[in-house]
Amino acid sequence: MNTPEYLNSLYSLAGKVAVVIGGTGELCGAMAEGLAGAGAEVVLVGRSQEKANARLAKIEAAGGKAWFQSAEAGSKAELQKLLDAVVARSGRADIVVNGAGVNSATPFLDIAEDEFDRIMGINLKGVFLGCQVFGKYLVERGQGGSIINLGSMSGLIPLSRVFTYSASKAAVHNLSKNLAREWATARVRVNTLVPGFFPAEQNRKVLTPERVASIMGHTPMKRFGEARELIGATLLLASDAGSFITGSEIVIDGGYHAMTI
């Protein structure tokens, strides 16, 4: 059965430019592929061209359009240069994914100040600055836009062994709701995508066999998520299909948050 034309147009991102900060990582990289597949020109943002190349090749092989721009998520000056580069090369920015992140598994009483500052500087400050730089552009442009911030299940439900990460993500959830309220009349939507347990670069160090068993016991679907399973929600939040969705937390966790005993 062919997909009805109105559904194709509703989720289409043709003519849009999506900036994916953290797009060289596993989860945001998959989101970038999905955005490109829906017709957006995608800008992968990270520190390493080498890490971006494989993702760029996959996007281009599938008929999509993407390019890489180096930037440090925790630097306002670099994010402003990123925006300037995107507008100069692609002409516009319509969708912004703030997904750069780091984690640690340090016991609470052993967390050093520099570790705390490093995690907060990327996970929270990076989102704050990304929203400030790109949000200003989107609001002043007057054509609306979509900002998707990467939250975490640990930002909703406290999880053991990831104290600073949890605090940083909880702040991201709060910031996103505040900005959704501030920018709603400018048609700039701000939402939080909330992955449950998806094995990725930043959390493999905490996925011990004991912890994996505990996670599976609390996840009704009895498995980890796959990065590609974030694409559907990403397209909903990025496209006209989600035009009345702002300030929301879209949870993708295999039922983890619904499980008690």
In words, what does this structure look like?
By secondary structure, the protein is an alpha/beta fold. The protein has one domain: NAD(P)-binding Rossmann-like Domain (Rossmann fold, 3-Layer(aba) Sandwich), CATH 3.40.50.720. It is 45% helix and 15% strand. The chain is built from ten helices and seven strands. The chain has helices at 5-11, 26-37, 49-61, 76-90, 113-123, 125-141, 153-156, 163-183, 209-217, 231-238, and strands at residues 17-21, 41-46, 65-70, 95-98, 145-150, 188-195, 249-252. Strands 3-2-1-4-5-6-7 form a seven-stranded parallel β-sheet, with helices on both faces. α3 (49-61) links the parallel β2 and β3 (65-70). The protein is globular, with a radius of gyration of 18 Å. The model has no long low-confidence stretch (mean pLDDT 94). It holds the Pfam family adh_short_C2. Belongs to the short-chain dehydrogenases/reductases (SDR) family. This is Gluconate 5-dehydrogenase.
